Amino acid sequence: MGLDGVRKETVLAHEMTHLFGGIHVTDANAIMHPSVPLNPSVVLDEDNKKILYWTNGIDFRKGLDSLSIEAVRALISVYERKIKENPLGDFYYQLGKFYQHLDEPMKAVSIWEAAVRYQYENPYIHHELGFHYYEAGRYALAIRELGSAIAHLILPSQKKQKADALNFLGVAYYEQGNIDQAVFNWLKGLSSDPDNSVLQSNLAIA
Predict the structure, then answer these.
(1) Cα–Cα distance between 109 and 96 in angstroms, integer?
(2) Could you tell me if 167 and 196 are in contact, meaning their C-beta atoms sit under 8 angstroms apart?
(3) Taking Cα atoms as reference points, which of 129, 135, 122, 200 lies closest to residue 172?
(4) What distance in Å separates the CA atoms of residue 202 and residue 83, rounded to the nearest whole number?
(5) If you compute the radius of gyration of the chain from its CA atoms, what whole number of angstroms results?
(6) Using CA atoms, how far apart are residues 80 and 82, in angstroms rounded to an integer?
(7) Closest CA to 164 of 142, 192, 143
(8) Closest of 2, 50, 6, 3 to residue 25, by C-alpha
(9) CA angle, 106 as apex, 164 and 73 as ends, to 5°?
C-alpha cells in the first residue's frame, strides 16, 4: 500500500476513534494526533485504547445514558489524566459532562469554571455555565457566560445551539426586567432558527 493509502487509512481510523469518544494526543506519530502524521503508528495509544474499551458498546441514540457507571468513571480517570498532560477546552467540557451524568452537577460546574479561568474558549462550556447560573438565579453571570457562548458559536452547524443560548440570554435579561434586551436576543435567536417555537412563544408574551 502506498503512502496515500496509509494516510487515508490513518484518517479513517482517526475519525472512527473520535466517533467512540477518542481524543487527540501530543505524540506527532500517533494516529490521534490532530494532524495526519507522515509516519503514523500502526496502533492506538494506550489512553484511546482504554476509551474504546469502555465505549465500544455505546448506543449512539442514547449517548452517555447507554454507558454503565463503571464505564463513565473509567473515562473520567482517563480525561483527568489527559487534562494534566495537555489541558484542552474539549477535555474540560467532556469531563464536566461525565460528572453531570453521574449526578454530580457542582463537580461539573467547578471543572467548567476552571476551564473559563484558564481561558479555554469552548462555547459549550460557556453555554453549560450560563444555563447553570440562570437556573441558580445568578442572572448577571448567566448573561456573561451565554454571551461568551454566542460569540464562539459561529459555524453553520451550530445554529440551533446558538438559538438556544440566545433564548436563555433573553430570559436572563427578562428576569432582570430588561425587556428590550430580552426581545433583541430572542429576535436574534429566530434569525438563527426561524422555526424555534420556544423563541416564538417568548416573543409573544414579551
Answers:
(1) 7
(2) yes
(3) 135
(4) 40
(5) 20
(6) 6
(7) 192
(8) 50
(9) 100
| DSSP-assigned letter for residue 136 | T
Please report, in tens digits, the pLDDT of each residue of the chain (206 residues total): 444 666 778 888 888 888 898 888 888 888 888 887 777 777 788 999 999 999 998 998 998 899 999 999 999 999 998 888 877 778 899 999 999 999 999 999 999 999 988 876 789 999 999 999 999 999 999 999 999 999 999 999 999 999 999 999 999 999 999 999 999 999 999 999 999 999 999 999 87
d(CA 184, CA 167): 10
Query: Can you read off the three cell numbers belonging to residue 16?
Result: 472512527
Residue type, 164: D
Q: How far apart are CA 59 and CA 112, in angstroms?
A: 26
Among the listed residues 133, 97, 109, 127, the one whose alpha carbon sits nearest the alpha carbon of residue 21: 97
